[in-house]
Amino acid sequence: MKREFTSEAPDRLWVADIEYIPTGEGTLYLAAVVDAFSRRVVGWAMEAPLRTELVLKALNMAIGQRQPREVIHHSDHGSQYTAVAFGKRCREAGIRPSMGSVGDCHDNALCESFSATLECELLDRQRFETRDEGRREVFAFIEGWYNPHRRHSALGYETPTGYERRYHREGSVAEETGEPVGVGSVEYRGHG
What we know:
It is built from six helices and five strands, in the order βββαβααβααα. By secondary structure, it is an alpha/beta fold. Residues about 175 and about 180-190 have low confidence and may be disordered.
C-alpha cells in the first residue's frame, strides 16, 4: 500500500490489526478490520487465545456484512495473517492480501489509529475484571459508539456510518445525474 490508506469508495481497502485488552483474568485479544474509506470497523472478533481463528472470525464477519467484490486486506506480518488458513480464506473470498514492511508500525497507521482511539477512549479509562466484561465493553464501544457516533476530522466530522450513508445516498443521485459524488468541500476519498 506504500502508506496510501485512502479509498474512493467503501470496500476497496480494509486494514486490520490485533489489539491486546488486559483483564483480571488475563489478556483478551481483539482482531479488527477497518474500512479505509469511512474508518468503520466492518469486522471484529475477540478471543482469549491468540490464534489464526481470531483473525479469520474478524475477516468472516467483514465478508458477511459487506460482501466485497474487490477488496485489498492490509495487515502487518503477524503469524495469524501469514497463516496458510488465512491466505486460503482470502483467496476463496476474492480478497487480495497486502502486508506492510516488517517492524514498521507506520505501514498500518490507519488501523493503529483505531487501536489508539480504543485505548484512549476506553481501555485507559476502565479496567475489566473478567474477559466477558471486556468483551461486552469493547462490543459496546465499537457498535454503540465508534461506528455510529464517533466523529472523525478526516471525514469532515462525520461518523463512519453517517459518512457511508451519505456516500450511498448521494452516490445513487450522482449515478442518475452524472454529477461527481461529494459533500460540500469534503470529497469521499477516505482521507487517511
